[in-house]
Design a protein that fits this description.
Blueprint lengths: L1 E4 L5 H12 L3 E6 L12 E6 L7 H14 L4 E3 L3 H7 L11 E2 L4 H8 L1 H10 L7 E4 L2 H5 L10 E5 L3 E4 L2 E4 L3 E3 L2 H10 L7 E5 L5 E9 L3 E13 L5 E7 L4 H13 L3 E10 L6 E7 L6 H6 L4 H9 L16 E3 L1 H13 L14 H8 L7 E3 L8 H17 L1
């Protein structure tokens, strides 16, 4: 089985490369750099440097098609939303034996659009934060008086907004006052498009991972974030497997059934400390950053997805996995610590009760813990970590 894994710069791509390589697949990795963490894995059999999909979409697609032909690829694993957006339109023009391992374009549009997703959640009685749906900066001006509490969270509808042959990257933003909110909408290009203004939910975040088949979960896994980069909320650098939360499982089931989802997804919730309800944050219709945690705990989503798209029977895994296991991204934890040491807690907008700097230092130096493993670092496949460490040091030297 010849498999193409895109976006080799991502940790999730490394996890897929290792998983499918161990399964016996011939894994080909693509990336915008000549070398990346996934291509440095011993399980990568061939690697290609290709155009950046964010700026050269058409050239990217043509290069992927050429690699598919040259390497006799059977299955393509698009690893980011950008790759999914660009490759979905050519699904039908690929050779008949080639499988694109992601949901159809119409399903992706519903799930990846935060505005339409939250509107769907409201119809299905899935709790969401208090939300204002904003069509444009002009629309915001007429609705400012509806916001009675700050800080607020500003979310563009799409994390990647396609413009001509390129994309605008759009992340979550925060405003601590009315003036800051107005400034964001007057200066940020991504807010020319539909967006949301939401109340900030204080509470633990939980990711529910699933392999879904139209109206049922085939495999489930759940984790919580223990440390993030930046510390106030972002990419998980330390995460821990936790038991399934039935309320979240049922909410995810209602949402994914409504769009007849087929494939993997991460459904993210926050448990609101005020009312105890699990409130929907977003759905990522692709593999996620802490994918290796699920694999280490016994739910090998890449292998399961490969079986699923090939039409093989996938037994329902339910919640049968190791609980209480931690996954650490070593250099990510270093970044977390450095951010804490360089900034005041007030500047980082950290919630009350957030672990102290001293606790962050202590946690960082607990390299080896019982029931824990590393994300990139693997002594049996050391190439990716060595590449990541060299790149990290070079970035530091460039700043000096």
């Amino acid at each position: 089985m010849n498999v193409l894994v895109t976006d080799g710069e991502n940790r999730s791509s490394l996890a897929v490369t290792r998983s499918l390589g161990k399964k016996g697949c011939y894994v080909v990795v693509t990336g915008v750099s000549r070398s990346n963490i996934a291509s440095n894995s011993s399980f990568c059999r061939a690697a290609y440097h290709i155009p950046n999909p964010l700026v050269d979409g058409q050239e990217y697609v043509e290069e992927i098609k050429a690699i598919v032909k040259k390497e006799k690829i059977d299955v393509i694993f698009p690893m980011t939303e950008t790759s999914i957006y660009l490759l979905n339109p050519i699904r039908e023009s690929l050779p008949c034996n080639v499988i694109l391992a992601c949901p159809q374009e119409d399903k992706m549009k519903i799930v990846s659009n935060k505005v339409s997703l939250c509107q769907l959640a409201e119809k299905l009685n899935v709790p969401i934060p208090r939300t204002l749906f904003i069509g444009s900066p002009v629309d915001l001006i007429t609705r400012l008086d509806e916001i009675d509490h700050y800080p607020v969270v500003v979310k563009p509808a799409l994390s990647k907004i396609q413009e001509r042959h390129g994309f605008l990257s759009a992340g979550v933003m925060y405003a601590s006052s009315r003036n800051e909110l107005e400034h964001l909408y007057s200066t940020e290009n991504v807010l020319r498009y539909p967006s949301m203004v939401q109340e900030k939910i204080v509470g633990p975040g939980t990711g529910l991972f699933t392999l879904y088949d139209s109206d049922r979960h085939l495999a489930l896994f759940s984790h919580r974030r223990l440390r993030e980069k930046p510390p106030s909320g972002g990419v998980s650098v330390v995460s821990e497997s936790i038991p399934l939360d039935q309320e979240m499982v049922e909410a995810a089931d209602r949402l994914l059934t409504a769009v007849k989802w087929q494939g993997v997804a991460m459904v993210e919730f926050k448990r609101d400390l005020r009312d105890g309800k699990a409130k929907l944050m977003e759905i990522n219709g692709r593999f996620w950053g802490s994918l290796q945690l699920a694999i280490d705990c016994g739910v090998d989503f890449p292998s399961l997805l490969l079986d699923y798209v090939e039409g093989k029977k996938v037994l329902n895994h339910g919640g049968n996995y190791r609980v209480g296991h931690k996954l650490k991204w070593l250099l990510g934890t270093l970044d977390h610590l450095l951010i804490r040491l360089k900034n005041n807690d007030e500047d980082l907008n950290l919630p009350p009760g957030f672990p102290s700097r001293g606790k962050s230092i202590y946690d960082f130096f607990k390299f080896r813990e019982k029931n824990s493993s590393f994300d990139v670092l693997d002594m049996h496949d050391f190439g990716p970590f060595w590449f990541e460490l060299r790149s990290y040091i070079l970035q530091i030297l460039k700043r000096i």
